[in-house]
Amino acid sequence: MNAGRLARWYRPIEYAAFGRSLERCRFAFLPRLASARRILILGEGDGRSLAQLLRIAPLADIDVVEISPEMIALAKRRAGDADRVRFLCDDALKGRWPARYYDAIVTSFFLDCFTEGDARRLIPRLADCLAPGGIWLINEFAIPDNGWRRRHAQLWIRTMYLFFRVTTGLQARQLPPISAIMREEGMRCIDRDQRRAGFIVSEVWTPADDLSRRFSE
Ligand SMILES: C[S@@+](CC[C@H](N)C(=O)[O-])C[C@H]1O[C@@H](n2cnc3c(N)ncnc32)[C@H](O)[C@@H]1O
């Protein structure tokens, strides 16, 4: 995916299509990261989540992995040149992170950029770098199970994949089964918020081991 050409237009296009729904989705659970010390953001885009996080999590060092130099330039402009932020302009698929290191991971409308095969390579590596007790915020599109909500989501998602294929060369053609892969990797969703008839979701995931430990204490 080459989001460079789209970078400047990304926010106006988003507002035209979804109003503030995606923004509310991105920000919904960020306050949970208030005491985090190490945060990893993948596919940050134009810096809106980063700018919020710098305010919300004053003690956090934040690593940002973003493949588009244009997006990184926008993010730097929006978030300022905080010395707590480390930008890595690279393909997340090549990433290697230290095990059990980050208190939190944030991915917003990022995992949908991958084919199922690539998502299956990426998600386990990310799950491994989450520290015990850590949380992973996943803000994404989703397809409800049935009814008009399902058809509504499918129509939007088909349209978006076509749009991003034409404008950025996106290879993925459909949403990877993110929740299923997360569960296979031993992660559990502990909180969920949805918008637009279930088509836009904000989720909080944590390692299932941590949950069973919490309940047995
Ligand atoms: C759909 S945009 C979402 C941007 C932002 N997170 C948001 O909430 O709007 C996907 C972002 O992920 C980045 N991206 C896509 N594939 C990537 C990869 N393999 N490695 C790192 N960043 C990637 C794109 O450059 C783009 O900024």
Can you walk through the features of this model?
With 217 residues, this protein is an alpha/beta fold. It has 8 helices and 7 strands, in the order ααβαβαββαβααββα. A 7-stranded mixed sheet has the order 3-2-1-4-5-7-6, sandwiched between helices. The structure holds S-adenosylmethionine (SAM). Residues 1, 3, 26, 43-45, 65-68, 71, 91-93, 108-110, 113 line the site of S-adenosylmethionine.
Question: Which structural traits does this protein have?
Answer:
globular; 217 residues; alpha/beta; binds S-adenosylmethionine; Rossmann fold; single chain
Any chance you could write out the topology, listing elements then pairs?
Elements: H1 7-18, H2 21-27, E1 38-42, H3 48-56, E2 61-65, H4 69-79, E3 85-88, E4 102-108, H5 116-128, E5 130-141, H6 147-168, H7 178-184, E6 187-195, E7 200-207, H8 208-216
Parallel strand pairs: 1-2, 1-4, 2-3, 4-5
Antiparallel strand pairs: 5-7, 6-7
Bound molecules: S-adenosylmethionine (SAM).
Proportion of beta-strand residues: 15-25%
**Could you say which overall geometry the principal axes of the C-alpha atoms support?**
globular
Number of domains: 1
Bound molecules: S-adenosylmethionine
Q: Find the structural class using helix and strand composition.
A: alpha/beta
Give unreliable regions as ranges. Answer: none
Query: CATH homologous superfamily, by name?
Result: Vaccinia Virus protein VP39
Helix count equals 8
Distance between the termini: 45 Å
